[in-house]
Amino acid sequence: MLDINIVRNDIEKVKQAVFNKNEKANLDSLLEIDSKRKALLIECDDLRNKRNVTSKKISKLKSKKQDASSEIQEMKGVSDNIKQLEVNIKALTDELESILLNIPNIPASDVPVGKDPTSNVMVKTWGKRKEFSFTPLPHWEIGKELDILDFERAAKISGAGFTLYKGAGARLERALYNFMLDLHSQEHGYTELFPPYLVNRSSMTGTGQLPKLEEDMYRIPEDDLFLIPTAEVPVTNIHSNEVLSAKELPLHYAACTACFRREAGSHGKDTRGMLRVHQFNKVELVKLVRPETSYDELESLLSVSEKVLQLLGLEYQVLKLCTGDLSFAAAKCYDIEVWSSGVNKFLEVSSCSNFEDFQARRSNIRFRDDDGKIKHVHTLNGSGVALPRTMIAIIENYQREDGTVEIPEVLRPYMNGLEVINKRKKSSQRIISFFS
RNA sequence: GGAGGGAUGGCUGAGCGGUUGAAAGCGCUGGUUUCGAAAACCAGUUGAGGAGAAAUCUUCACGCGAGUUCGAAUCUCGCUCCCUCCGCCA
């Protein structure tokens, strides 16, 4: 949510931002409602003041056992007036808030202006393209052959767009998120969390998924709860309606959760394999920081996410998103895309965003600064990283001509020493037991 | 799911429907004192709006939302959350 004062004082800037983000907002009527509301508020305040003053007078008269009936008569009228005004003000306030909740965040000044992803700017690339002496296969073929991914049966039990990991595939998934969580919590100093997967409407509104994206969310209508589309939602909202002390900042959190997305707007896109699924695991990093540090924090957030891919030996590129590709709540965002040899393209595995105070204002997350003033924190988050596409890249980039898949070295300790996923053998890939 | 109890400022905790935005204590901040510190004493210490150049004035908020009343932290109703007991259960 924007500070309404920015809209009042610099509406052109807001209009430009809305336009650049390919969004729509009812800005002119916002100002109109705002001034109408303010006028009523002043009128109402005057009447309330009158009521307060007279009530005290009535109290005094009564305590002296004097007659106050004329004052009481007068106040009856005043109270009725106030009530009517309050009803009108409430209606305007609701309208104002609903418009305000639908205005997107303003892009940072160094974000390139552009309509669509073609205007995104390449910031860096890392790693060398894997070369193959054969034509690399896509992960759904490798996965089927090795019996580690089963899309048909996933569709049978749930529907299209779900994944069933089996044997070494399931183990690889577990190895991946354990590796990522250990890296972030032990090497990068993030506090590991395990939050609820169901959150209420207010949390979803706080981080900006609602009201705009309700149709993309899975919802439990009986309880008005939502399945989280990302750990960003529960984790950012941990501190909603709190005033943090300056010395607890910055807060750095890491959480691995399942993420649930209806993908309502993307039917028929990336339907093969697990390029785009309704449920997937993701390690998410969330930061609550002092405003003046948030852009430095964004850079370090990006670098710890990159670290994951570097250690896995996966080629990637980093893009700075243009205004038109920026999400509703973000002020600035980097996407990390990992190269995958089978599908032969770059896959987005992370978005690292600074929301400035946009989410903090919606969720009411504040801190007391050293000067004693209470201010909104800045919030950031980034994937560190999303699992399925990382899994795709590993399977496809580490495939070998004989159909086996090599395990990246950093994952081997998490795979109980397994170096290669072979076909045929029982999916448990029996290795030395550490239970004996 | 059933039966009770509760929700007040950073914390503990008072609060007959009428100078209670809120006692008291703790904590915190500043000052006096001290070589310094502690103690003691004095003072300050909620947030969000509005008007104003400013001093300042003013409104709202005692879990949330309605209601009764000239007037609600205080009375009524609904909701949420917490605690205790019973039942059920991973």
Annotation keywords:
436 residues; alpha+beta; Helix Hairpins; BirA Bifunctional Protein, domain 2; 2 domains; eight-stranded mixed sheet; three-stranded antiparallel sheet; 12 helices; 39% helix; 20% strand; elongated; RNA-binding
What does the model show?
It is elongated and about 100 Å long. By secondary structure, the chain is of the alpha+beta class. The strands form four sheets. Strands 1-9-10-11-14-8-7-2 form an eight-stranded mixed beta sheet. Strands 3-5-4 form a three-stranded antiparallel beta sheet. A three-stranded mixed beta sheet has the order 6-12-13. 39% of the residues lie in helices and 20% in strands. The longest helix is centred in the first third of the chain and has 37 residues, at 27-63. The protein binds one RNA strand of 90 nucleotides through α3 and α4.
Beta strands, count: 16
What portion of residues is helical?
A: 25-40%
Structural class: alpha+beta
Q: How can the largest sheet be summarized?
A: 8 strands, mixed
The first-level CATH class name of the largest domain: Alpha Beta
CATH homologous superfamily (4th level) name of the largest domain: Bira Bifunctional Protein, Domain 2
Q: What would you say the CATH architecture of the largest domain is?
A: 2-Layer Sandwich
- H and E order: HHHHEHHHEEHEEHEEEHEEEHEEEHEE
What does the secondary structure layout of this molecule look like, with pairings?
Elements: H1 4-9, H2 11-20, H3 27-63, H4 69-101, E1 121-126, H5 139-146, H6 151-157, H7 168-187, E2 191-193, E3 198-200, H8 201-206, E4 219-220, E5 225-227, H9 232-236, E6 242-245, E7 251-260, E8 279-289, H10 294-312, E9 316-320, E10 332-340, E11 345-354, H11 358-363, E12 365-368, E13 374-376, E14 378-386, H12 387-397, E15 405-406, E16 420-421
Parallel strand pairs: 2-7, 6-12
Antiparallel strand pairs: 1-9, 3-5, 4-5, 7-8, 8-14, 9-10, 10-11, 11-14, 12-13, 15-16
The protein binds one RNA strand of 90 nucleotides through residues 38, 41-42, 44-46, 48-49, 51-52, 54-56, 58-60, 62-63, 68-69, 71-76, 78-79, 243, 372, 374.
